[in-house]
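Example record

The entry below shows one chain as it appears in the dataset: sequence first, then structure tokens.
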Amino acid sequence: MPADKLIELGKTVSRRLRANPQVQVVEGAGTELFCFQNFLDPLECGGLVAMIDADRVPSTVYATNDDKHFRTSESCNLARTHPFVHAIDAKIDHLLGMKNRQGESLQGQRYAIGQEFKAHHDWFHVEQPYWQDERKRGGQRCWTAMIYLDQPESGGETSFPAAGLMVTPRAGMLLAWNNASPEGKLNSATLHASLPVTSGIKNIVTKWYRERFWC
């Protein structure tokens, strides 16, 4: 794996985010995590929620997992050619300074009461069989951008247990994190979970960026 590419992308995106006065650095052990309040406005959030609600299906995971309750949300990939989605994509690309072709399709996710996504990494585990295909489709996931589209009445926090962080959903708020360490190694401290919603509904969108062009 080309660690130098992950190092370069880590430095350039981190530098850009730190230079943005609207971006906050979230202090967590061993992670580079950033927050942008009100990144999307209510109309943008509402439009994405409507698209998720129309197309959602049970979520899947890459690796084989015998735990049927590991990821219980519903999700869908939003059509990047749709003008509304394209505009949101471009907004995230610009914030991070990433090329559009490095980004996977924006994925919408819906969590109803009791639904969750247990602790996982966004980066690909290279010992898993799926890696041989993903390495040809843009390689490793270097950065994650996740946006809360609404706020459940209770529950649904994003936990980063290794980093000692707990993030409460706020409508329009974006989180971004580097999936690699400053040395270009896959960062185990980015382990995170979407905790069960206990009242209400949570909708989010997530965009994963690859080290090369995604296809």
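Notes for this example: The chain has four helices and 14 strands. The longest strand covers residues 202-210.
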